[in-house]
C-alpha cells in the first residue's frame, strides 16, 4: 500500500507526456517515488544530525539528493 495519493502521480505522468497510465503503473510509480523520497529523507536526517540540528533544512535535502 502506498502513502502518496495516486492523483498527483497521474498528473506527473501526464505532464511528462503520457496520454494514459494504468492503475498498476500509477501505484508502481508511487512506490518508487516513496522509496526514493525515503532515501533522500534518511540522508537529510544524517546531514542535519551531523550539523548538530534536529531540523532538516532545504540544503540538507539538496545535498542528500546529490548523494542518493
UniProtKB/TrEMBL annotation:
Keywords: Chromosome, Cytoplasm, DNA-binding
GO CC annotations on file: chromosome; cytoplasm
Domain spans labelled Transcription factor CBF/NF-Y/archaeal histone: 3-64
GO terms, molecular function: DNA binding; protein heterodimerization activity
One Pfam assignment: CBFD_NFYB_HMF
Keyword Protease found: no
Domain of life where this protein originates: Archaea
Localization terms from the record: Chromosome; Cytoplasm
Transmembrane intervals: none
Family of this protein: Belongs to the archaeal histone HMF family.
Protein name: Histone family protein
